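Justification of computing resources. Each target in the renewal requires a structure prediction run like the one illustrated here; the chain below, 219 residues long, is used simply to show the kind of job we budget for.
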Amino acid sequence: MGFAIITKKDPQGKIKIIRSTSAFLTPELQNQAEALDKRLREKISVIEKELVDLELLEKNIPKDESIGKGDVLLWHTLGKKLRALCEEEGIVGRRERRWLWEAIENIYATKRIKRAGRGRTRQHFEYCYRLSIVPIEFADQVNWSEWVYFYDSRTVRDELRIDDWLLTLVKEGQKITRKIFRKFVQNLNKRVKNLDTSELNTKELFQIYDQTWNETKND
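Resulting structure tokens:
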């Protein structure tokens, strides 16, 4: 059947943009998008309330643009909830996730969980979603700014398999620090900047990650 989602409305609540996997928006897809809109309106509100109840978010919605950065626990928890939402709605593709983040940003989220955009490449909700794949105990070894630096990197942003590689560090009980983590990203960028990693199988790619990580730690 395909997938369709409303990603923008006008101030009166009328639909402005619908993203769709189909070149032609059928009545079935239109109905699907409108039904999803109703669910998201409720679900995102519930997610924010849960974060408030956990005392990870302020109860009051900020009225100005001075929004705090938040911490790893907040964004990791939000990421877990967004991951669960994607599973509930059957949103598995990266493109469809990007549309979902666009919809949440434009329509459903308040300033409590929004963050200032810095171009099309930085996707705050995608970063939260990706961070949630690792346990909070691992993620919380460095600050949120380090994770943003990590995901902002082109070699990380465009290659999702590095998320699974992080789990190998978790299983090995590896420790990360701000200095090592940043240096690893810098070294990785140098190592693969001229490579098309999509041509590498996972074993070959993980070997590069392992070598770069070990060289960084032992430097």
